[in-house]
Amino acid sequence: MESPKSDGNSVEACAASSPSAQKSPFSKFLNNLSPIKSARASRYTQRLSESSFPTTPLVFSSPHLDLHQETSFLKREEIAASSSQAHGKCYSPSNSAPIPCNQKHLQSCSPSDFVGECLADPLKADRAQNAERLVQSATDVPLLPSCFTASEVTIGKVDVTNDVIIEVGAQTLPHLAKKHLLSGSLCLVQVSDDQSIDERSDKISEFSSENICDHVESDDFLEHNEASQHQRGIRRHLQFEATLDCKCDAAFNCHTSSGPGTAVPEVGDHVVIDHQSSEAVVVVNGGHLPDNIELPWDSQKVSCFDQQTLSCNGKMPGQQFADRVEEPSQCQDSSKGKRQRETYTDESEGCKLCNCKRSKCLKLYCECFAAGIYCVDYCACENCFNKPEYEDTVLDIRQQIELRNPLAFAPAVVKQANDSPNVADDGNSMTPSSARHKRGCKCKRSKCLKKYCECFRAKVGCSDGCRCEDCENSFGKKSEPIFQREKKLKNLSHEKLNTAEIMSGSIKGGTANQFSPTWEELVDISHPTPLSHSHSRAVPSLTSPNLGDCPNDSQAQSQKGSGLQLSPGYLHWCSSALSRTQGCVSNVSRELDSTSALCDIMGDGSPEILMENSNPTNIVKAGSPNQKRVSSTASII
DNA sequence: GAGTTTGAAACT
DNA sequence: CAGTTTCAAACTC
């Protein structure tokens, strides 16, 4: 391993700012950083200073640290995570006021009501509540890299005895076993001033070794992490593009998608963002790995974040490319070449490994590229340019693709506002599906029953945005367009005709038109659901797609099938959902225009209500919490 | 593991 | 926008 050169802005310099770090094993470890890592760390540190991120050490008031309470570890984690979100939230060692390390980052949360509550009686504490409070407290802090790793901790010396300085942005503790580092906790270690540097680090190591893995094995922690690790594992993500413009904490938030109740284990997900390259240098997965798992990679590389949950004040950070380390469960055994893939998982993008040969992993053919992540060694790709070292190229290509299709890198699956089931042609409710694929599929032969189908692969039902044929998606069929129904009906008519011919032995003077489907017949076919009968007056009008003419999804779909299609993509899905509730809308612009009109009709001016009731089944579903409001729409129709 | 099938992406 | 080609994943044997 080459020794990085210190440029004065590097992590090394950062670590050296601590008196204790100068001779510490951490600084030794700094010298063992690869140039790339060192460069990233350097950029990160530099960005921190440039962007006025507080580099002041985190100081936790020692009275709140009870190292004798083994179970308090999780609470320390909570604090650590919360503090990491707050990055720079400092507590005075002697009083309850936060140290003014960076005024704008200071919060009202004081040690007494924050740290103390968390540590005082962790066994009795309601972790969910605490976590929620912690997260809430942390999220109040803007502009800060929300995560850092336990490996980012160094200890320093402070004037006040018994206090511990946690310095962020330093380096990995070399003493910690990898598996312990993976526990991903910012461990707070109480050391005394008279201890030597090595003793301190040893103590940290000892503490970590003895406590981290043990104490993170709380039920809820393990429950979550077993699932998350199996599904998501540990990945190393690097954010593309400078996210300095998006300094909000969410941009650096590496929490997974769980709610506050599961925030305790989640907070172990830490990341250090290199703001210059927008790279997450080190991320440690949220918690614990079984002791029997030996990880094949350097703990330095261990990282993750769940990019799907990133948000920047509600907005997705535009570019979230990520470089990641393989999942141990799935990727460890992977080798170049064929392997089992887990392209989609329920809550994350899973472990994507590509096998690209010609695309150089710079096209959407490449699932890694499409997912916004860098390829990794376990990918079987050839001539891969989807690597951090080609970041500029990747970004250029990405921009070009986004110019063509702004939604190209949007999440493939769009969650629906409510968890309403799709409705099959026969009116039966299909598997409830809370999400739809953003583009929809165009399957012709797979019947949307194989992973060729993007919807099926994403475990979502097909939507009206799909152009699939003979959809049998087990997660939810799409409604059949009228032209297909008409086609079927014509076929049926021809069959009838032929049957009649056979039966009668002759047919005279008649044409097939005599047996062409009437609109009434089309209504019967295109409105297979009970709802349709209640609106049987609403003959599907292909020429006047008024709200009143299209009372349900089938009719809306009928219009679509008649050539009045919505545009594809996410907008389509959202708009489609909107249109289904509205009754029908023939195109996006009409939908947009009619939204306000419908709000006027409904009288409450709440367009979100439309989204909440995007499925027509809600209209007639008794007991639906939205029934009253929706039924008013139905009555209007 | 090789070959085939499939459908999305890219291209025209 | 539709048709064709390219591509890589999914699938089959």
From TrEMBL:
Q: Where is the CRC domain?
A: 350-476
| Record key words, sorted | Nucleus
Give one Pfam hit by family name: TCR
Provenance organism: Durio zibethinus
Q: Which family does it belong to?
A: Belongs to the lin-54 family.
Provide ranges: composition bias, Polar residues.
Answer: 541-563
**What does the entry list under GO cellular component?**
nucleus
Where can this protein be found? Nucleus
Could you state a single Gene Ontology molecular function term?
DNA-binding transcription factor activity
Q: Where is this region: Disordered?
A: 1-25, 527-563
- Superkingdom is Eukaryota
User: Which PROSITE patterns does the protein's record reference?
Assistant: CRC
Q: Which InterPro entries match?
A: CRC, Tesmin/TSO1-like_CXC, TSO1-like
Q: What is this protein called?
A: Protein tesmin/TSO1-like CXC 3
